[in-house]
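Input record (one chain):
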Amino acid sequence: MTIQEIVGMWAKGALPADLDTLRYMEAEILAAGIKALNAIAASTDLPIAEKLIEEHNLLSDIHACLEIAINNLLPLA
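The corresponding structure, as predicted from the sequence alone:
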């Protein structure tokens, strides 16, 4: 599953109800967020940095949704 697919599922409100899949998605989102932060830190071009910050903020929003979904499923596991 790609980051684009995860973002698309999140945008549609179609997160899976499978704990393993949600954990996998969370790991992918966290990795992409770290990559964005590293790119922001390395950027010397303000417009590029601003775009990366927007991307990181979106990833953070998705991560928060995934955490909620995972926490809601944990009692059922």
